[in-house]
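EI: anyone free to look at a 142-residue chain?
SC: sure, send it
EI:
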Amino acid sequence: MNEYFPSVLASPVIAQYRLTLTAGAHSAHHIRHIARSLLVDWALESLTDAVELALTELVANVVRHVPDRRCTVLLLRQGAGVRVEVTDGYGQLLPTPADSQPESESGRGLFLLDAVVDKWGVSPTGGGGKVVWFECVDVSPR
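SC: here you go
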């Protein structure tokens, strides 16, 4: 008889989604699919392109720069928008936009992130890692 019975007042739509994983070559694809589905559930479809692009960049940075590639992705509905956090345990590489040369193959991701989201930043975690986060707000008329 120790079963969980959800409240009849509980919302049928979740307000957040958390996933802990070891990121690999195909992780961004799967996480984009999850994000797209949540944005539809949250009636925030207008944010899909920005969220998918920014999330792909953050996951790619984990694959490229975090030695064990472990991270936690959090998607959180906030009023008329969404906040996404990618947390890892590697605090030595706090991201900053790099000075990239026109012929460089990399170094533009955080410039791209800055261009497509409303707000973003980096916060250290207590365990020596970091959280890279961004927020997108839906300004379309309802």
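EI: The mean pLDDT is 86.
SC: 👍
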